[in-house]
């Protein structure tokens, strides 16, 4: 009996000893797994941080690429609008030249062979287009109205007796018809600017309201400008007023007829070359 008890106690002790070892082993294994998990978590966070940096750099590069693409587009447009000098008269952009080429493509080769320079070609194209847009067929040309196209401008000269009383800058009512037709021409094309020039004869003038011929020529020009703006709806930003006094006579001032010719208002229609040809290219 005593022997059996000893054996039982031994078995129990051995059994208890084995369970403790397993527990310690499991604890150790759990510690290693926990440590590995923590290490993995740290590595994961480091990888996420690296990925975020890479993603930020990719976004930065994409932004730079898009910006460069935009700059290329801008530079392309700027290149089209770069201006080339045309003689000593004007400048013309690549877009304008495209419109000019379109116009000149309709001109006979027999005519084009005489236009060898950029300046010659531009003048021809402008003249053709201005004749198309500035239809003055319903303006009766006489000694009182003279119409001409000189290279890049249309010039309409109107005798002062059709617009003003002698020595005055107030516009006559009978001038409404001609000014309405001029306004129609100006308003028909947004690329046109218009200079109104007042010219006098050489006889001096001095009144309470008019100091001299410079004064009279400018006052007459501004009277026409105001009339075109207020009564006929011409945009003021398209209008230019100028006075020439008596210093650009058409003929001498020795006779009554000569002085009458020199007293005039000249309307100079000036195309904005870039806008003009850009508009032509779109037609």
Question: What can be said about this structure in brief?
Answer:
The protein is an alpha+beta fold. Helices cover 56% and strands 15% of the residues. Strands 3-4-7-5-6 form a five-stranded mixed sheet. The protein has a two-stranded antiparallel sheet with strand order 1-2.
Give short descriptive properties of this protein.
about 280 residues, alpha+beta, two-stranded antiparallel ribbon, about 55% helix, elongated
Describe how the helices and strands are arranged.
Blueprint lengths: L1 H79 L2 E4 L3 E4 H11 L4 H4 L5 H16 L11 E6 L2 E7 L16 H13 L3 E8 L13 H20 L6 E5 L12 H7 L1 E8 L1 H9 L2
Parallel strand pairs: 5-6
Antiparallel strand pairs: 1-2, 3-4, 4-7, 5-7
Structure description:
There is one protein chain. This protein is an alpha+beta fold and 283 residues long. 56% of the residues lie in helices and 15% in strands. It is built from 8 helices and 7 strands. The chain has a 5-stranded mixed beta sheet with strand order 3-4-7-5-6. Strands 1-2 form a two-stranded antiparallel sheet. β1 (83-86) and β2 form a beta hairpin. The longest helix has 79 residues, at 2-80. It starts with a helix and ends with a helix. Mean pLDDT is 75; it is low at 78-90.
